[in-house]
Fold:
Amino acid sequence: MPNILYTLGNERKPMEYILWGAKGHGIVVRDVLDKYGCHLQAVFDNNTELSSPYQDVPLIFSPEGFKKWHTLWSHDIPLGFVVAMGGKRGKDRINMAKYLSSFGLKPISFIHPWTSVCSDVVIGDGVQIMAGACISSRVKIGDQTIINHMTNVDHECTLGKGVHIAPGATLAGCIEVQDYVMIGTGATVLPNLIIGEGATVGAGAVVTKDVEPNSVVVGIPAKNKD
Structure:
């Protein structure tokens, strides 16, 4: 059972945690976890040109910086993590989650309190469900998948690992979204389709047929991008 923070009668104890990712998505994630009383201890990123987005939390660079910081952490206190890297970075999220887990940190899955999520939804490790999302019955969500603001995932959809559903996208019923897919802002996917591994659906596209792995589709109806 993943460390899930949500409001469906099964709330977990607030955690001390870190963020990997110091840009916009991480700022939003912290706001959600603040609502649950979690305590952010540090932010990490590989981009040394960034500055900390918070006055009260240090920004530390690179896996080597994390190792040094972690040696000073009290190992008597459980520590969770969220990989806050959105967009077409599903494999990066999965790999970073494996790295942090190897130090004994626990991936946090969370559901923003302002959502509608059916009680039988199956949620993997490190899943991030943002404000306004509506997720219907018998949906399965893989590890390190982001379901962003105001998205709609209808009944019996299966989402693989490292998926990102961007704000305002709609998935109709019985859709299979394979690993590392990016579905753009405001896109619509019609029922009973398969979105192949590593594919990208452009913003505002309307998908009316299966999408091949690693392809990019755009437009209404969605077609392969030249």
About this structure: The two ends are 43 Å apart (CA to CA). Residues 3-110 form a domain with the Rossmann fold fold (CATH 3.40.50.20). Confidence is low (pLDDT under 50) at residues 6-11.
